[in-house]
Amino acid sequence: MSKDNPSMTKLENDIVTTRDRLAQTVDELTVRAAPKNVIARQKEAAKASFDKAMRTESGELRMDRVAIAAASVAAIVLLKMTASNRQKKKWARQRERRSW
User: Fold this and answer.
1) DSSP assignment of 37-88, as one string?
2) How far, CA to CA in Å, does 62 sit from each of 39, 47, 66, 68?
3) Straight-line distance from the first to the last Cα atom of the chain, in angstroms, rounded to the nearest whole number
4) Which of 62, 94, 95, 97 is most buried by its number of CB atoms within 10 A?
5) Cβ-count burial 27-38 (b if 16+ within 10 Å, e if not)
């Protein structure tokens, strides 16, 4: 055989090596794409982002941002309570109209 044509054994070895590499890559992707692992990575990223937004470089809390976050949470709770009360009153009015 000439140097231009690789031997059959070398081709078979290349195929086996490539197959093993492909199998390893598929296994790594399977682990990386598992929903449990994706959720864990997203949680860690969210925690890191929140921590970066709420703390200074020295590690102290940024009180202005904490106050904004607390006010936002309070506003959302207040809106939900108001909406719930309005819904309850609406259902009560409808029941009163329908009762004979």
Assistant:
1) HHHHHHHHHHHHHHHHHHB-TTS-B-HHHHHHHHHHHHHHHHHHHHHHHHHH
2) 28, 16, 6, 10
3) 102
4) 62
5) eeeeeeeeeeee
Residue 68: which residues within 8 A CB-CB, separation 6 or more? none
The H or E element that residue 19 is part of is: helix 8-32
| C-beta separation of 56 from 62 below 8 A | yes
The two tokens of residue 90 are 């609406």
Blockwise average pLDDT, block size 10, the chain, 100 residues: 70 95 96 94 94 89 91 97 93 82
pTM greater than 0.90 (yes/no): no
Residue range 33-61, pLDDT digits in tens: 999 999 999 999 999 998 888 898 898 98
Taking the C-alpha atoms of residue 100 and residue 89, their distance in angstroms, rounded to an integer, is 19
